[in-house]
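Q: Structure for this?
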Amino acid sequence: MKILTGALLATVLTASFVSADPVDDTLILNEDITLVTRTAAPAHLSDAFDEVMSGWLFRGTETRAMQADDFDNPGMIFVEKAQESWDTVEGTEGKSCASCHDGMESMAGVKPTYPKWNEEAGEMRTLQMQVNACRTERMGAEAWGYDKGPAINMEAALSSVSRGLPMNVAIDGPAQSTWEMGKELYYTRTGQLELSCANCHEDNYGKMIRADHLSQGQINGFPVYRLKNTKLNGSHSRFKGCIRDTRAETYKPGSAEFIALELYVASRGNGLSVEGPSVRN
Amino acid sequence: MRISVISAAALGLIASTAFAEEVLPTAVSFNDDGAVEQSLSGTAGDAANGRIIVGDKGQGNCVACHMVNDLADVPFQGEIGPPLDGAGDRWSEAELRGIVANAKVMFEDSMMPSFYKTEGFIRPGNAYTGKAADDTFGPLLSAQQIEDVVAYLATLKE
């Protein structure tokens, strides 16, 4: 195997394929904040990885540049939309998000800790679930559909004010059982192709699978603006797509399975900077 | 699958030659090394068709994971598995049949999908729809397609 891989690399170079390694580049946002796109793996992951890496390092030069400047990042248009809904009064209580929280900047530091256990409700909440709890319980407004336009825009806005802060989800205490469930899902080989998340993103990151350059499948950059579908995409929708590609029956965005998977995958990126909204192909 | 199995059995008496020699995905016999001696279709493989299957996204899509110099015209070849160049030197026909039918018998826990298998999946889907499998569920490749791919791989000599 080892020898074959060496021979393969030589062929790749002569055939002028895209080099498969992550690039050696630094993400400086708006010529101001330097983001951490590679760092030591969190302790719980040390068996699998020495280093964790943002998906940004696996994308092409132009895509990386788009993300480095808010004027070029198409995801920021959706952040602006969310800023409007932040200030818009909705629901029976006559309140907007701003009525309780001041400006969006007051949310800096929130995104890196989600999904997070909510003691009062006794449940694990993703950021979108927390936003919906505010909407239904405090504003008397309708819940937004999971990963749908307004919800994903708001998640992007909440993420944008935390950019540069390290991902830091808790995996112990009341989070532990959900985390274990997410880990189980991560290593389960699903579908007719019998592939797990780990097969692609742990064992083979850096390699090409057909036209795709495999990353570690981190979610520190979510929501992501994808050039492919020209909209913001949530992590649950991404999970759904990856599972579908194993020829499996998927789970739904917002399902208990994807909440658990989000917590687990987020924890694999603990220490990487929050990047959302990021840009991917 | 269910349906075709039953009708094949029902037709057995009349159309005996058509189905007689096809080995069902559930009845493939692997030897201790993970090789399969017996042809799955009973009909010799067509290497030219096998070449198409290996490169075609909608069929074997083997190039998603393997490079093949002989298929240089097919863009975007993957690098998950070893290059298939010289596979015909390294492996016998029976070994190649075993690898393509179910590589996990020879290579434990291999990432390579099992192309002639219909049971034992977790949440099997209906192709790439994300929906649950229904009664149209069958192996990734048919018995004859496997034979064609094996015939093609056997031509890959260095």
